[in-house]
Design a protein that fits this description.
Rossmann fold, 2 domains, globular
Length: 308
């Protein structure tokens, strides 16, 4: 005998719509190298994710297609998390710290159709393009004029891709076991292995992660997200925090929290905020360059964010 409760599939789009409906004005703050603070809201996140889904529809992206990201943490990356999976495609977050050969293998194995990338990885993208035949479009996460700064002319911009698109989207309803995210292992024997997340698993994880004996996230909390968004689907925090109102990516909040709340953590006496970390062609931080710039200071005391 079956129960009479409603049959609603567990989909990530329902989390986004819930947040935009219940607390549309709650802030989402992120920090990027070019802007000290970017502030949007859950209402704005729904609008931009809807624009993204419409834009992906317009270029023929179908349910099940893999759409990749090669990017650091940002509000645009958050758009991608919800917009790609919400329309039924698979959000494939690529770890830029892997060797170029591994990334080439991952993109080809996943058969990614589109890759959204930060301009910090433009040299890496140039290395990938000739060897990734399934990718039909490479779109950088920025505005139209940003590409000129790093010599990346010819690539479409993310803001241009969204421009003019409708801020309303009819999020489809489909089987909750449909794939929503894809990550590849970084420490394994042989080639990296793909891990495919489902909408059902992501929604249930977002509920469990907020419980008192887990991350203990409530409506009264602000969440500082510092784990890379390309790692393990960001531990599900974009979905978990969105279900419960608080999502704030800000360095000062994390530092204040560590100093005031975590007595067992060793906190450096001097924390240096730098504009941008020097990266090599593969996206790895160049520690030798850091030492040249900042002398013999403890690298553990150097923050990865821009000066407030």
């Amino acid at each position: 005998m079956l129960g009479f409760m409603m049959q609603t599939p567990l989909l990530l789009s329902s989390i986004l719509m819930h947040a935009a409906r219940s607390f549309p004005d709650v802030e989402i703050v992120s920090r990027t190298p070019d802007k000290p603070d970017h502030i949007t809201s859950y209402g704005g996140l729904l609008q931009r994710s809807s624009q993204l889904a419409n834009a992906l529809d317009s270029i023929g992206i179908k349910p099940g297609d893999r759409v990749a990201t090669l990017a650091w943490n940002s509000y645009r990356h958050l758009d991608l998390y919800f917009g790609i999976s919400g329309m039924g495609a698979v959000c494939h977050t690529i770890n830029p710290r892997l060797f170029v050969e591994q990334i080439i293998y991952i993109v080809n194995h996943a058969e990614d159709v589109v890759v959204f990338f930060d301009l910090a990885f433009i040299n890496l993208v140039y290395s990938l393009m000739p060897q990734c035949p399934t990718v039909e479009a490479w779109i950088y996460l920025g505005e139209a004029g940003d590409a000129k700064i790093v010599g990346a002319k010819g690539f479409p911009s993310y803001e241009g891709f969204l421009s003019g698109g409708s801020e309303a989207y009819a999020w489809p309803e489909f089987d909750e076991n449909t794939a929503c995210g894809l990550c590849y292992t970084s420490v394994t024997t042989g080639n990296p292995k793909g891990v495919l997340y489902s909408h059902r698993s992501a929604v249930l994880h977002s509920c469990a992660a907020a419980l008192p004996d887990a991350c203990r996230i409530s409506l009264d909390d602000t969440v500082a997200l510092v784990s890379p968004m390309f790692h393990a689907m960001f531990w599900g925090m974009p979905y978990c925090a969105t279900r419960r109102q608080g999502l704030r990516l800000k360095a000062q909040d994390l530092l204040a929290f560590c100093e005031g709340k975590i007595a067992k953590w060793w906190m450096p006496d001097d924390v240096l905020f730098v504009d941008e970390l020097p990266h090599g062609a593969t996206g790895k931080v160049l520690k030798t360059k850091l030492r040249e710039l900042y002398g013999n200071r403890d690298l553990a005391a150097i923050s990865r964010t821009k000066t407030p």
